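Running log. JK asked me to keep both predictions on one page so they can be read side by side. First protein, sequence followed by its tokens:
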Amino acid sequence: MSRICILGTGAWGTALAAAFVRQGHDVAMWGRNAATCEEISLKHTNAVYLGDAGLPDKLSATPDMAQALEQAEIVLFVAPAQSTGDVAGQAVSHLPAEAVLIACAKGIDSHTGQTQTEVISEKVPDHVVGVLSGPSFAADVVRGLPTALTLAMPEQEMAQSMAEDLSGDAIRLYASDDTVGAQIGGSLKNVMAIAVGICRGGGMGASAEAALITRGYGELVRLGVAMGARAETLMGLSGLGDLVLTCSSELSRNFSYGIAVGRGHDVSGLKLAEGVYTVSIANDIAARHKISCPVMQTAGLVLSGKMSADEARTTLMSRPIKAEHNEAP
């Protein structure tokens, strides 16, 4: 069993911590909010993020990062994607020399265009950095319901060994050495989920949603491959699998956010939707690579206030008639 440190006490970090404790691992958690850490340690709940879901009695959290990271063999970065750099910067002086680092947040840095592994490696250059991603809702995982994820490491042999060690009844891991693909799928599906949510919010129906998911997946693959991902990775759990889940349930923050936008609701009080921060930089990257991404581009126009949801729905469903696999703009 491994000594695991989880940096982040939000929904996903807490759910992963609970799952790994139940699978027999020694887990420590760190979070900025001392009250949340106390609740996890003493009441064994995280009500703000996970409602009444019970956590293992053995699970504890602390706002002291040095304490959480002591003797850690595997460190999971599960803070929001735009905070990963700050967290890595705080962790660098406390990390054990041989600790393996795993990026778990799904998003592209909105300022630099870096993936999560690039952000971490820049702050902590002397550690192996991998990715954990795939179709998963924290509400399911914290209750012990099964999920399958991709664990991508720079080398396949290491990924396979870690996947075998960390897999259990609730979490089954599949090994990969495509760290780029595992991240791009998880990042761009958030943007697509917002677009599909806008469609749902406007009452366009399941057929239109299926079309939008399919066309959005095509964009995800084209841009991902241009960024260095392998197409087969994007066909797997961390690409297609995550996209399908995120676009099919209101448990998804990004999908719910898109629905609210599509209905014209005030979204200022909604929980963090990573796709909001990813869409602009992702469109910039697509433009640099000269990749046609009309679904992603339209989502960006709506989120920036340059296009109404009604205009977006009309635009998306009235694209020029052409061959299905002609990817020219």
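And the second, directly underneath as requested:
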Amino acid sequence: MNITRNNVDALNAVITIEVAKSDYAEKVQKKLADYRKNAAIPGFRKGAVPMSLIQKQYGKAVLLEEVNKLLQDNLNNYLVAEKLDILGNPLPKVTEDFNWDVEEYKFEFELGLTPEFNVDLAAKNNLLQYKIVADDKMLKDQIARIQKQYGKLIAKETVEEGNDVSGIFANEDKGINNRTTLSLDVFADKKTVKSFIGKKVGDALTLRTKGLFDDDHKLMDFLAVGHDDVHGLDIEVTFTIDEVTTHEPATLDQELFDKLFGPKAVTSVEELKAKIKEDAEKQFEQQADQKFLNDVTEFLIASTKFDLPAQFLKKWIQTAGQNPLSPEDAEAEYAKSENGLRYQLIEGKIIAENNLQITFEDLKSYTSDVIKKQMAQFGQMNPTDEDVQGIVARVMSNQDEVKRLSEQVMNEKMLNLFKDKVKATSKEVSYDDFIKAMYGELKH
């Protein structure tokens, strides 16, 4: 067997495999002999069927099968031996008039080669690394929510100032039908607030969405409308009241502090504020980290320039799935997946160049932390190490879970690397401003 490679260009190559009779003849004869032993053909005893008949009936199929096995094994071995980094899988070049009746064959396979490129994490950029701070307004609002949540709920028939109302926002044309609960102070216009005063359970109000709230994004929550639809939305909606409630706020005393954080963990309103601020900013840090990771990813895709073997990949996409795609569908699929492929290559290079590896201990430690956090959410603040490790062992026996957790560990390693090497500008923002930044609406 002879294997040669012709590099068409930096991104494409053709491998030619020449197969001689001596490469496959022995395997074909052995397979046919096995067939002969077990063949049940009328008129012949089992094992006594003439080889010429076996050859005639099974010879071509066995030849194709054995030659195909040879091709796959030798092609794979060649790619490994030559250390060829390819995209997709080798594509056989189809020959319409291929002749299987000769004794020597020649096969050609197209390859898409991985491009050479450099990743510069320290390149100049306009990236921002957000630090979200819990400001005084947020702390005040959160304490008010806590007092409301742990206070006494009183049902009413008529709406008065300071009450909460539950009901259904509806607009048939826009398909809006969403039940929600809101406090009257969420409305931007005092006239809207006044229109609720004196209304009873069962009453319906007609409201315009334009300027209904101080931030159009609130329409997403209260009306269940998508982000792309809320800006400038100017329609009439009905709000039908089905419940009116008022709260007798909980007293900010030691009983409430203990209920929230455990005995004597917090002993004053000032300590309560500090604890709320600390917990909120920990949660905000996760959201800011995810945005930073996403922003760096987009930056690297845009700034790391290299060509791909596009035509090869489109041909490969046509045959890669369960059902063949048309050239047009493959073109569309390539357009959708190109940036994902580019980042996959960039990420692989970053991982290799910075020796980012996931050890068993990394995975075990990360899984243990995740489990402890989940247990804490259900009130198990101090689980035993034996309990935690027992759950870790069960989780890590599931291959799907191990794969998912491994991706999370690598994401964490990538994030830490980006924080260390990507020269982003730090910016402190409130949570409201961070949400605007998420949607590209915050001016730098």
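Observation for JK regarding the second prediction: The chain is about 50% helix and 20% strand.
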